[in-house]
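Researcher: Here's a chain I'd like modeled. Treat it as a single chain, no partners, no ligands.
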Amino acid sequence: MKVKACIYTDAGKSRKVNQDSVLVKVANSEKLGRISFVAVCDGMGGLPKGEVASCKVVRSLENWFHEELSLMQDLETERLWDVIEVSWRRLIAKISGELRRYARHRKIDLGTTLTALLQIGDRYMLMNIGDSRIYVASKGEVIKLTKDHSVLQKKLDEGKITEKEALNDREKSVLLRCLGSMKTAEPDITRGVIKNDSTVIACSDGFWRTMEKTELYSMLCPQMCVTSEDMLDACKKLVKKAYDRNETDNISVAALCMELGA
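Model: Modeled as a single isolated chain. Structure tokens:
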């Protein structure tokens, strides 16, 4: 498998601080083959020190990738994924406790979203807390792999608003889960199989809020991702589109293009 990757993050037109943090890691393992890991954390803009929360999570995930994952390489496939899930849940509980202690000591509230995907071979595991998202572009379509933990998503699930009404809903940024001061920090963790050449797109809400799936596919489908430079250029153009549509938030996007036959 061949993997190409890029990251693009921007503070935006009206924010002085970029509270997003982004991570992409690609490695070759003698026993597991090509491994890719992507994560986006969006510090909560309505609270102080969102950048501290998002950076803490990304650094912890990077340490996990280098220090813990390498110790699991001798495990059988099914056992490996079970152990990774247990390890992730333990790590998130630890980070959540550390952020709450940090907040109590400084008498502040802080929080961050988290979305992350780990690929080993043709299989993946992802986790999600909040409303950052992961999409996969493959075989003519874009599929959203995550489900938002937000008031807006709850309204949509209950049929109280339509997708069109959701674009201008006052509560579009109100979260039901986050990592930090909010006690509810249990991540959704799911597994899947990568069946075709695919591009994984991880992003903050500033990126996806004004974007159509057709635009993501036209710019970031595997056929368009010839090089990492092409991918980065496409991400920059998509971010510009978001700002042209009056998006004011920080925007972050990370993309992984996976070629199964390479």
